[in-house]
Amino acid sequence: MKHLKQQWRSLAILLILCLFLKTCVPNASKPNILLIMADDLGIGDVGCYGNDTIRTPNIDHLAKEGVRLTQHIAAAPVCTPSRAAFLTGRYPIRSGMDSSIKQRIVFWNGASGGLPPNETTFARILQQQGYTTALIGKWHLGVNCESRNDHCHHPLNHGFSYFYGMPFSLVNECQGRENPELSQSLQDTYWLHTQIIALAVLTLLIGKLTNLFSVKWKTIACFATGGFLFFISWFSSYGFTKYWNCILMRNHDITEQPMRLEKTTFNLLKETVSFIERSKHEPFLLLVSFLHVHTPLITTEKFRGRSSHGLYGDNVEEMDWLVGKLLEAIDKKGLKNSTFVYFASDHGGFLEAQEGNVQRGGWNGIYKGGKAMGGWEGGIRVPGIVRWPGVLPADTVIDEPTSLMDIYPTVVHLAGGTVPQDRVIDGHNLMPLLRGTVQHSEHEFMFHYCGVYLHAVRWHQKDSGALWKAHYTTPVFQPEGAEACYKSGICHCFGEDVTHHDPPLLFDLSRDPSEANPLSPDTEPLFDAVISRIERAVWDHHGTLSPVPQQLSAYNIVWKPWLQPCCGTFPFCWCDEEGDRT
Q: What InterPro entries does this protein's entry cite (predicted)?
């Protein structure tokens, strides 16, 4: 009898302990997941990656407590396709989120292109696994498909239970700056066409009034009406970018149109801390997608003039402060040991972002190229830091090829889910590599696209330690001798803006990470064998691609008034619920 009582007492203690673990340590089995994505941050802008002039103590401390990845690669060198790949674990060409035209991003909130509803994001899988999911910050993957309120591309339609932020992206127009960011060349073309039409109408009118030639008034009226409608159609989109694109949303509701930029940083931080507070008793997925450090570099007064790198450096240091505030919120709730934290940038720094002689974009360290350049390392090699105390080793550096797409299978694994079996997933679960149970990355080949055009391929030859990279196409830098596309403002992917290489330019990144000295059959005995192996890999890769609708086609990225999110009666779109709330 006494023995039976002892057994019951032991069972009761065990039951109480289990209940304690379930209520007080809710993520003992499923960790919270905090993903932090910077915008346009160069790998050379961060202290733990070699910068000794911009202060990033919080990011550096995160790396000290976790694992730092030195070959962390974005699947695309611009925002929209890179973020699509990050969320789906797939090269953007598989989902139609890459472009065959010069414009490679979603250009308007009122466009019809975006992340297709049939794509399965990691947020959707974690939501099915019982996670509370939220996205706070930048989305830039579309809003509507066919009507103003269908929200087919919206974060809430892709597995996020809560959204607060910009459905688009920060651009210079949000601040009313003189140098517009949304395809100045395209606007110039439209304006030229408008002037030609106006000149034609004026010529007809003078000819009619002076009897130089016979023309009907109806013809002149048709030309004038057509020209006016053409001008209104393009100017109503580009001329009112601040109202159409620079908006804040909470779930499906617009809270600011246009945004009050001086309050945006505070609002986003407040929303993030609030979400952590109300979700601390259940496993959560929180994707914090910073507006920093994209132009126009919105920086609060507290950080202006603090760095030695002007407004850009100020903006980086403010972003680092935000990272510290997020980690502080996690720590204060006792969630540090039960939270998987990841920090990265969506692609490399923007070299061409300049105002006169002042640099407004990032620095990519020793790596050649930058944002929008599909093959060069500077456009795709980004910071990558992971922390999970007690599970992952601290102060560890991994010099193996990894991808932003790897986060997809990694967080799905941590949540106890399974990746979709009906499609190709290009990412790999990072946990074995992060924990040190394996020594090499699962990535043997990685394919580097510029739009839909394959510009370069890397081959991780694990047995030899070589890291080969073959460039089939590279951008033409201008002016001659420059290291970026300063004349055009951004590098393009095809036509006269690129150079094709046959045979490809070949580098061994293990010996030449700056891609300064291309190899040749004379300098590299394995040249032909390496190129042959890479070409077989390209052939195999192409065999895994299936035709899909192109989300970033010319039609899908053009502004459509009937799709424009509006918090009033279109076109009178204006509201400030955040100000009212304050």
A: Alkaline_phosphatase_core_sf, Sulfatase, Sulfatase_CS, Sulfatase_N
Structure tokens given for 335? 């969630």
Sequence length of the chain is: 582
Contact criterion met (CB below 8 Å) for 78 and 371: yes
Phi, psi of 142 (to 5 degrees): 95, 165
| Residue 536 counted as domain residue | no
3-state secondary structure 508-555: ECCCCCCCCCCECCCCCCCHHHHHHHHHHHHHHHHCCCCCCCCCCCHH
Flag whether 578 is in a domain: no
Same domain? 339 vs 200? no
Tell me, yes or no, whether 221 and 319 share the same domain.
no
Q: What is the pLDDT of residues 62-113, one digit of tens each?
A: 999 999 999 999 999 999 999 999 999 999 999 999 999 999 999 999 999 9
The CATH number that applies at residue 382 is 3.40.720.10
Active site members: 79, 140
Residues 227 and 141 in one domain: no
Q: Which domain holds residue 61?
A: 32-174+246-442+548-563
The CA-based angle 256-262-263, given to 5 degrees, is: 55
Rounded to the nearest 5 percent, the helix, strand and coil shares of the chain are: 35, 20, 45
- What residues in the chain have per-residue pLDDT under 50? 1-2, 4, 8, 11, 14-28, 582
Residue 286 and residue 199 share a domain:
no
Distance CA 361, CA 209 (A): 55
Joined tokens for residue 503: 């045979």
With H, G, I as helix, E, B as strand and everything else as coil, classify residue 53: coil
Contact 452, 99 (CB under 8 A): yes
Same domain, 191 and 251: no
Number of domains in the chain: 2
Against a cut of 0.70, is the pTM above it? yes
444: left (phi over 0), alpha (psi -120 to 50) or beta: alpha
